[in-house]
Design a protein that fits this description.
The structure holds 2 protein chains of 2 kinds. Helices cover about 40% and strands about 15% of the residues of chain A. Chain A has 13 helices and 9 strands. In chain A, strands 2-3-4-5-6-7-8-9 form an 8-stranded parallel barrel, surrounded by 8 helices. Helices cover about 25% and strands about 30% of the residues of chain B. Chain B has helices spanning about 15-30, 55-65, 70-75, 85-90, 185-190; strands at about 5-10, 30-35, 50, 80-85, 95, 105-110, 125, 135-140, 145-150, 155-160, 160-165, 170-175. Chain B has one domain: Rossmann fold (3-Layer(aba) Sandwich), CATH 3.40.50. Chain B is an alpha/beta fold. The radius of gyration of chain B is 15 Å and the shape is globular. In chain B, helix 1 (about 15-30) packs across helix 5. Classes of the chains: A alpha/beta, B alpha/beta. At the A-B interface, strand 1, helix 1 and helix 12 of A face helix 1, helix 2, strand 7 and strand 10 of B. Chain A: GO terms for molecular function: pyridoxal 5'-phosphate synthase (glutamine hydrolysing) activity. Chain A: Pathway: Cofactor biosynthesis; pyridoxal 5'-phosphate biosynthesis.
Chain lengths: ~300, ~190
């Protein structure tokens, strides 16, 4: 048959292509890894992607100091070690770190509050990039501002590195609750609400009409067990990021397997009972209520 | 009697396929009941199946473990339609040159995963497809390439490489017809 390929017609980095990538991750688990060995464990467990980091958030917390993008050589090594997508974290507002990660060839960039913010006033203009971005949010205003800047995926911020799911639940409930409120509003009321939460009105209408965020919405920040992951799915999340919860656990391989299975069976308690058995100790963690305000990461980048 | 359409739902863009099937059936004037399949026992009740895009390592692992894989094979052997897109194409193929993915051997091609490159190489483009009058808006995301075709009909090529094929009741694409609002590939797979 004829091949009428017209390469002039080919378009990369469009919203459809970026958001489409995020959609491929749905129903999946994205795991934080710091080296190729961990990346392979994640891939074997059925992770849909890995997040390549220098240290998991729990260790970033302990270590203190300035948290930056990982060494690109380490990220590249992880990119070359697995067949699933690899993501990398750039500091909030640090366009150059994001450009370097894009040059490395990561499949998605996380503009993340887990790292020390580089810019107090502006996030990265994500529309400039071919690579899609994921950003954290605590509420609808934050989520829609990030989408307006070009984010193709939103995740709850939660409180990273704590192993306490409390804040991820709070942020997801907040976002869902605000969208539910919108659904009962008139057009003018939505416009006023958009001004109140400092969000683009078109995106507010879109979220109201869809009854959800207009991009894929994952849970992140403090997910430490299969039950935590399943809980977040009951809150209508599209998938799960697990940071310190896997390689901070006593048996990372078993924990990784179990969390992937739990996301597939989130609505089946009998299956979750089997999946949750005999996994060894979960990460110890820090309860959110015990954390001093100044140590919380979630307030970074609003 | 309404059509029972199953979407393999362990991971990936499942709701998009479900919505595309509903649109396609509405256009064909057919009542449809769409079921998401995350456990064994549902595939045998389905008239048509879609295997979505997502991560082929994850999807193949979970459908094996849940016992869905063998049901999909039986579905195709019974001559019932299957639409397999992107990761679904990889899982349906004879071989993916990768021991991280166990394939179902219901589609007589071999594929190379991520052969169009990483996400930065992902693209959209209009594509001529045999049997469709106008070009189809094809979205390729870390797409696989069909590197060897057996006894199949090639429906579309991009830059000389097959990206849509038909093998009896199976239609498979490297791209994602479920990501656009164009339901022609779904209608081609299920009603022609």
């Amino acid at each position: 048959m004829p091949d009428p390929t017209d390469l002039e017609e080919l378009r990369r980095g469009t919203d459809l292509v970026k958001r489409g990538f995020a959609r491929m991750q749905k129903g999946g688990v994205i795991m934080d890894v710091v080296n190729p060995e961990q990346a392979k464990i994640a891939e074997d467990a059925g992770a849909v992607a890995v997040m390549a980091l220098e240290a998991v958030p729990a260790d970033i917390r302990k270590r203190g100091g300035v948290a930056r993008m990982a060494d690109p050589a380490d990220v590249e090594e992880i990119v070359n070690s697995v067949s699933i997508p690899v993501m990398g974290k750039a500091r909030i507002g640090h366009r150059t770190e994001a450009q370097i990660l894009e040059a490395v060839g990561v499949d998605m960039i996380d503009e993340s509050e887990v790292l020390t913010p580089a810019d107090n006033d502006y996030h990265i203009d994500k529309r400039e990039f071919t690579a899609p971005f994921v950003c954290g949010a605590r509420n609808l205003g934050e989520a829609l501002r990030r989408i307006d800047e070009g984010a193709a995926m939103i995740r709850t911020k939660g409180e990273a590195g704590t192993g306490d799911v409390n804040q991820a639940v709070y942020h997801q409930r907040t976002i869902k609750g605000e969208i539910r409120k919108l659904e009962g509003m008139t057009h003018e009321e939505r416009e006023a609400y958009a001004r109140e939460i400092e969000a683009n009105a078109d995106l507010v209408h879109e979220a109201a009409d869809m009854g959800r965020l207009p991009v894929v919405n994952f849970a992140a920040g403090g997910i430490a067990t299969p039950a935590d992951a399943a809980l977040m799915m009951t809150h209508d999340c599209d998938g799960i990021f697990v940071g310190s919860g896997i390689f901070g656990a006593e048996n990372p391989t078993e924990m990784a397997d179990a969390i992937v299975e739990a996301v597939n069976h989130w609505d089946d308690p009998e299956a979750l009972f089997e999946i949750s058995k005999n996994l060894g100790k979960s990460m110890k963690g820090d309860a959110n209520v015990d954390l001093p305000e100044e140590e919380k990461m979630q307030g970074r980048g609003v | 009697m309404s059509l029972v359409a199953g979407v393999i739902g362990v991971q990936g863009n499942v709701s998009e396929h479900a919505a595309a099937i509903e649109r396609a059936c509405e256009r064909e004037g057919r009542a449809v009941e769409v079921r998401e399949i995350r456990t064994a026992g549902i595939v045998p009740e389905c008239d048509v199946l879609a295997m979505p895009g997502g991560e082929s390592t994850t999807i193949s692992r979970l459908i094996e473990r849940e016992g869905i894989a063998e049901e999909v094979v039986a579905h195709v052997e019974a001559g019932k339609p299957l639409l397999a897109t992107c990761a679904g194409l990889i899982v349906a193929a004879n071989d993916a040159h990768d021991d991280r993915v166990s394939t179902l051997n219901v589609l007589d091609v071999t594929v190379e995963r991520n052969a169009f490159g990483r996400q930065k190489d992902s693209f959209e483009a209009p594509l001529e497809v045999a049997g469709l009058e106008k070009p189809f808006p094809a979205v390729f995301i870390r797409a696989p390439v069909i590197d060897q075709v057996g006894d199949v009909e090639v429906l579309a090529t991009w830059d000389g490489r097959p990206v849509a094929v038909r093998d009896g009741p199976v239609i498979a694409t490297s791209f994602h017809p479920e990501l656009t609002h164009d339901d022609r590939i779904h209608r081609l797979a299920f009603f022609e």
